[in-house]
Write a structure and sequence with these properties.
Keywords: Calcium, FAD, Flavoprotein, Oxidoreductase, Proline metabolism. 48% of the residues lie in helices and 9% in strands. With 647 residues, the protein is α/β, with parallel strands linked by helices. It has 2 domains: 7-44 and 124-242 and 357-598, TIM Barrel; 244-353, Recoverin, domain 1 (Orthogonal Bundle), CATH 1.10.238. A hairpin with a 6-residue loop joins strand 1 and strand 2. The protein starts with 6 loop residues before the first strand and ends with a helix.
Length: 647
């Protein structure tokens, strides 16, 4: 599959399949800039390692004063604590007193136009016409969340007769147990501090509507110039409770590797497996479907089951397996039975079996996902699977890696014969494109270890790892869930630890990109992280126009990063959420609640907006009647002031 669609060459009219070099920016928008990186091929220019992210005249070029004033208003409101705390109540009161028309109309003209691309996927074209002139692409992001709307108000307290003594007591205290099915625990969006989308549905019709919307996003992304991206969430395609159940089975089977690794050397030999099996035979429990995929025995302690299970885990008859081989053998549809079998052998036992209806739900979820993947592959669109709650992560990761094993490969797939450089090694001619991306959240304590294991798995199974690197968006929800369950928090205690993990993962992934083993989408509004990535790319010799390193920011945030990177030839994308106004309210409320961003990166956005508005008012006759009345200024005054005003 070609990484970029064939586009006509603006010079000769002949087709070309490579992205053209970029141009240095000038103050006036020119046809060269409009066609940059979309088929026009001028001479290559040197990329700058030390970019200036404060040139407000270049950053806001092409945007009218009304747009800048709206952005200034929105960001100022987001930085006002009293407004942030009361915005949800204000919106509800406005809808009740004025009606949906005026209330949602006010939202549409302010927050919606600032943070969203439009109502339909096709509406993204209007925003792209402005973004693509600055070298910025779009990541289509279906942002409607009708399921979540059910949980934007506190739930009614249950009685003891309705929920039992324990649940009734919890209800009296106002707390609801947090699960994948009730992700907000009865709290409002603002109270929960959830910064990312959360679905909660087993409704088949609703899941089909989500699937149709994702398909539309993929189709639209395929029509946009340059490389197309689309983002999806697995919890929108099926019941999150089912994913949580499967995630528990995956995690249980993975953790049981340590049980069988008696000497802790990272390998389980057949002798260790047999020893562990026999040692715990007395603790095994009978009953239930405990057989591995190829076994028909009903006794979990039988020699036949033990033998068949080992043969299934070690198909190459090496006599030992390591952690990567162990995880490679996991099949999602049969994981519950395998988990039950292994746990009974380990003397634990847990109800993992799927009911007939759950098996049908799983088939439906995977069927919807397969339709999305097939459409993305056929259209040349990269598909990013978003991260969700850590309770769902093992299942989501397992599904994502299976998709990468099938689609992020060279012709011939992962079964191709290994080269002479070692098992799973990929030569330059064999380097594959990443079509499927999974997400790594560095606020999770185990992110670095998982990334290392995943890169090793990708190398051995001969596929390219598609990785989106972010810090994480469910911080408060993760901590509250851990506290309520009495378990250690899966996220770091201090932001400095998250930053350190992010930096380490970034260095690891850029090294993997250099070695042809990974593609990276860097999702960050942190200027320091972006500057570190740019510097590392220069040191590693990664050409911004050729290397598969992508930068991503949300629409309406960190424009100084996005526009500066785009103007200097880096592959940068804006997440373009779309959907009807009333159904993206949860998304907008979370953007309003990005206090940490507004106090840091958002503060710089406000400073740049003020600086540009002052420049236009005093020095730019094209935008200001006052400037036309003032004495003429030196021709280069605007350029010098814009580069030094925020130094």
């Amino acid at each position: 599959m070609k990484l970029y669609r064939t586009l006509p060459n603006a010079k000769s009219g002949s087709p070309t399949t490579r992205l053209p070099p970029c141009f240095r920016r000038t103050r006036m928008l020119s046809p060269v800039q409009v066609f940059r990186r979309y088929g026009f091929e001028p001479d290559k220019v040197k990329q700058e390692e030390n970019l200036t992210f404060t040139d407000h005249a270049a950053i806001f070029e092409g945007r009218d004063n009304g747009d800048l004033l709206r952005a200034l208003l929105v960001l100022h409101l987001c930085a006002t604590p009293s407004f942030v705390e009361s915005c949800e109540g204000l919106l509800e009161a406005a809808r009740r007193l004025l009606g949906d028309g005026p209330a949602l109309g006010a939202v549409r003209e302010t927050f919606y136009k600032h943070f969203c691309a439009g109502q339909e996927a096709a509406d993204v074209w209007a925003r792209m016409n402005a973004l693509r002139a600055h070298g910025i692409g779009a990541i289509l992001d279906y942002a409607e969340e009708e399921d979540l709307l059910k949980y934007t108000k506190p739930q009614q307290k249950q009685t003891q007769t309705q929920a039992g003594n324990q649940e009734g007591a919890a209800a009296e205290g106002g707390d609801v147990v947090v699960t994948a099915r009730r992700p907000l625990g009865g709290e409002t969006i603002i109270q929960s501090r959830v910064a990312a989308r959360t679905y909660d549905s087993a409704d088949e019709d609703l899941c089909e509507r989500h699937t149709a919307a994702f398909l539309s996003a993929i189709d639209t992304a395929a029509t946009l110039p340059g490389q197309g991206f689309a983002a999806i969430k697995l919890s929108a395609l099926g019941d999150p409770g089912l994913l949580e159940h499967l995630a528990g089975a995956v995690e249980g089977v993975q953790q049981l590797f340590q049980t069988y690794d008696l000497d802790g050397d990272g390998h389980v030999t057949q002798e260790e497996f047999d020893t562990c099996f026999q040692k715990l035979a007395a603790q095994q429990q009978q009953g239930g479907s405990s057989s591995p995929p190829s076994s028909s025995s009903s006794s979990s302690s039988s020699l036949q089951e033990r033998t068949e299970l080992w043969r299934w885990l070690d198909p190459e008859r090496q006599g030992f397996i390591d952690y990567i081989s162990w995880t490679q053998r996991l099949d999602l549809g049969q994981l519950p039975a395998l988990a039950a079998s292994l746990e009974r052998q380990a003397g634990r036992g847990r109800t993992w079996e799927l009911s007939p209806s759950e098996k049908l739900e799983l088939q439906a979820l995977l069927g919807r996902l397969e339709r999305l993947v097939e459409r993305a592959v056929s259209k040349g669109v990269k598909l990013m699977i978003d991260a969700e709650q850590s309770s769902l992560r093992p299942a989501i990761d397992h599904i994502a890696h299976e998709l990468m094993r099938r689609h992020n490969t060279v012709p011939g797939g992962p079964a191709s014969v290994a080269s002479e450089t070692g098992p799973g090694a990929v030569s330059g001619e064999e380097q594959a494109e990443a079509v499927i991306f999974t997400t790594y959240q560095t606020y999770l304590r185990d992110c670095r270890q998982r990334l290392g294991a995943d890169l090793d798995r990708a190398r051995r199974e001969r596929y390219t790892l598609g990785a989106k690197l972010v810090r994480g968006a469910y911080l408060h929800l993760e901590r509250r869930r851990a506290a309520e369950s009495g378990r250690p928090s899966p996220v770091w205690d201090r932001i400095e630890q998250t930053h350190a993990a992010f930096d380490d993962c970034l260095a690891t992934l850029l090294g993997a990109v250099q070695g042809g083993r990974a593609e990276l989408m860097l999702g960050s509004h942190n200027q320091g992280s972006v500057e570190a990535a740019v510097g590392a790319m220069t040191r590693l010799g990664l050409d911004p126009e050729e290397a598969p390193v992508y930068f991503g920011q949300l629409m309406g945030m960190a424009d100084n990063l996005s526009f500066t990177l785009g103007q200097h030839g880096y592959r940068v994308f804006k997440y373009c959420p779309y959907g009807s106004v009333e159904k993206v309210i949860p998304y907008l409320l979370r953007r309003v609640n990005e206090n940490q961003y507004i106090l840091k990166g958002g503060k710089r956005d406000v400073e740049l907006l003020w600086a540009e508005l002052r420049r236009r008012a005093l020095h730019d006759p094209a935008h200001s009647p006052l400037a036309r009345l003032l004495p003429p200024l030196q021709q280069d005054s605007a350029s010098s002031s814009s580069s030094s005003s925020l130094a």
